[in-house]
Amino acid sequence: MEPLILTSLTLTNALGLGIEATWRSLESRKSGLTPCDFEYAEIETYIGRVKCIEESPVVDNLIEFDCRNNRLVQLSLEQDNFIASIEAAKSRYGSNRIGLFLGTSTSGILETELAYINRDPETGSLPANYRYMHTHDNFATTDFTRRYLGLEGPALTISTACSSSAKVFANAYRFIQSGFCDAAVVGGVDSLCLTTLYGFSSMELVSTQPCRPADKDRDGISIGEAGGFVLLEKQQSTTKDHITTFMGYGESCDAYHMGTPHPEGLGMAQAISSALHSAKLEAKDISYVNLHGTATQTNDKAEDFAVSSVLGKNIPASSTKGWTGHTLGSSGITEAIISSICLSKNFIPGSLNTQNPDNSLFCPPVLDNQNQEVNYVISNSFGFGGNNCSLIFGKAS
Amino acid sequence: MTTVYLNGVGIAAPGLCGWDEAREVLRGSTPYNSKNIPEIKSDAIPPRERRRASGTANLAVHVAEQAVQKANVNPADLVTVFASFLGDLQIADRLCTSLTQPGRPVSPFQFHNSVHNAPAAYWSIATKSKKSSTSIACASKTFHAALLDSVSFISVEAQDVLLAVYDIATPDTLANHHTTSKSFGAALVIQQKKTASSLASLNIKYKYQNCEESNGIENSLKALIKANSSAQSLILLSAIAKEKQETIFLNYLPGSSLEIEVNPCL
Predict the structure, then answer these.
(1) Chain B within 8 Å of A261 (Cβ-Cβ)?
(2) Does residue A257 have an active-site annotation?
């Protein structure tokens, strides 16, 4: 692919509001996971909860969109001078020439869950103030973001479970190259809800402890919430300093099973290989792999097969989900932005919460934070149903 | 701007059971009979999985299978763009009901079937298709977004595409809050090259203004479009069925539209 540049980024998650909060937590190895205190969820687990969502309703002129997920959209957009960057981009390109591609897996389904809990006991009717279209609907997150930012270019929601907000990068690239828009905002937002807490629990994929990627005794995920956004532009379109380069992507399907990955990670390996090919890079060029690393037995093993087969057994790799939790539909963007941090700071985060590394893995994880030159990072996002996406980022050139 | 070829169509909706029947209705040769409800046969999904698969998964796979058969292609050679406004609200209804019960007994099947990309996942597993797959939503403009997405795969990645757009009727509890009252599914195999199965070539342009939408569709079908926004695909399919050169116009998001030049392959 022709590289695109990331000229503005913002990230909000359990580590705090804005990118600096994530960077400080990575550096100090301080996890954002806390015991689950989410209302109505009686599950013994740890979650990555964003503080102050409860006190932050959406703006008055968009109040019909008010729900946890859209509040997290708003909180995220308000950090890192992102809004100012978008205003400047609108002046440069025109608001109708900027596309918007967001990933979410559950959107505002929490509102529907709460509406059902508060049904009329006799008629079964949902409360009159329930608003499906502005909250639960798959496009509500993107619609709200579009209105909040005043964007008028092509837009859509991608909802492919945990690969959603990685695939948005590929979408933006295709739309820009097709001439449907000249720049794009990509990102994703997913927030805590009962569907995922109880859904993953029912599949016995949720740990009672803070998740331990690549640990011998790893026993499941910690669910987190996050919102992240990036402005993507063509290199030749701006003289602005850019932060990171989007170099390549690979997408594939396992074609194996709804709930578990291919045990040898064949689809994952295909995505990684395709990304290298797209970026015109070789395995030896890669400085670090930010793993999908959910801390389930099956994901980490399958991903290890894939990473070691394509990139070799000595590639520095780690998961950062011990910090943020698994932010599901927003894990792609969360980890893309973490990859950008690694490139900017020449930093490799050591796998957090990994107490006894699984030595059956071909590719042992980096355990301690490293300060070394980081030139190219691969970020993996592998979703339910075997939907795989690998992205490659490089330093600002 | 890329010329692409529509090489196979599948369709399942009241009165539109497969392309052969739908073509005659769209041309006006056969009267529309909305009482003729299609039997959804998703043969590609193994019987045991078919029972557990959701209504949207069965519908999507059913129309996708039809389109692939008409196009005479190997499904594993196609990138998939699956698109649904609502996803499966019947599952959401059952899942949210489970959440109100003691212990909140969500079942693993309910959960993994509830993801928006479950139909696409069933398709990829059934056809062993390992190519890129996406599942998108854009409210009432979902079909339009899917067309743009499909064209972008073809022009930028030189991939052939299977597009499927599908929505099922909203369950009762949610019907006051959103209404899709009839099921509709359509699938299009869109390829880079003309083949013996080609119905038409399409030149799709993205326009930076709204348009006066094409209105050449049979009156009897307008109620179906009102009942299910995925049926807006009939505006394009109607032009295909008539086998005449035509340019059609579809409004996308406010301030934008699609202009589609249709040239029949006869």
Answers:
(1) no
(2) no
- What rounded mean pLDDT belongs to chain A? 96
Phi then psi for residue B247, to 5 deg, are -110, 125
Q: B-chain residues within 8 Å CB-CB of A158?
A: 134-136
pLDDT band, residue A240 (cuts 50/70/90): low
Using alpha carbons, select from A378, A376, A370, A363 the residue that is nearest to residue A312.
A363
Q: Two tokens at B88?
A: 């499966």
In this prediction, residue A324 carries a pLDDT of 98
The percent of residues above 90 in pLDDT, for chain A, comes to: 96
- Our answer to whether residue A134 is catalytic in this structure is no
**Using one digit for the tens of pLDDT, what is the confidence trace for A165-207?**
999 999 999 999 999 999 999 999 999 999 999 999 999 999 9
DSSP B198-250: --EEEEEEEESS--PPP--S-HHHHHHHHH-GGGGHHHHHHHHHHTS-EEEEE
d(CA B178, CA A138): 13
Q: Write out chain B residues lying below 8 Å of A253, CB-based.
A: 121, 124, 129-133
Q: Quote the pTM value.
A: 0.98
Best mutation target among A67, A145, A198 (most B Cβ atoms within 10 Å) is: A198
Q: Among residues of chain A, what percentage have pLDDT more than 70?
A: 99
Nearest-CA distance from B24 to chain A in Å? 33
Q: Percentages helix, strand, coil for chain B, rounded to the nearest 5? A: 40, 25, 35
Average pLDDT, chain B: 95
Report the phi/psi class of residue A346: left, alpha or beta, with left for phi > 0 and alpha for psi in -120 to 50. left
Answer yes or no: are the C-beta atoms of A255 and A267 closer than 8 Å.
yes
Buried b (16+ CB within 10 A) or exposed e, A165-198: bbbbbbbbbbbbbbebbbbbbbbbbbbbbbbbbb
The 8-class DSSP code of residue A138 comes to T
Whether residue A342 lies in the annotated active site: no
